[in-house]
Design a protein that fits this description.
Elements (H helix, E strand, L loop, with lengths): L3 H16 L2 H8 L2 E2 L5 E2 L2 H8 L11 H5 L2 H11 L9 H10 L1
Antiparallel strand pairs: 1-2
Length: 99
Amino acid sequence: MPSTRDKIRGEYENKIKRNSPPEKIFETFASFKDQDGKLYMTHSDLFKALCPFNYTTKILNEEDEQKLPFKSKIINKIIDTNQDGKISIYEYYMVLCLI
């Protein structure tokens, strides 16, 4: 059972996904900033931004993601077009257009 804090965070994230423009969603979920101050998403950030908040307690960490090679291959070939391991805002827009 998720904690009250997780429920509040989940409601907030879901509200942002429903009511905000893509730029705000990208800024909210992007967790990587380069030396120039540009924001990027990791692969797991992208899935958090696209999927509704899951109220279960199991959270995939980086080790669990490495066990899913099929997902990583799809992301690298289709979404991460320059294959640098980061999702730029332009790649994020492309995903939204495809969806």
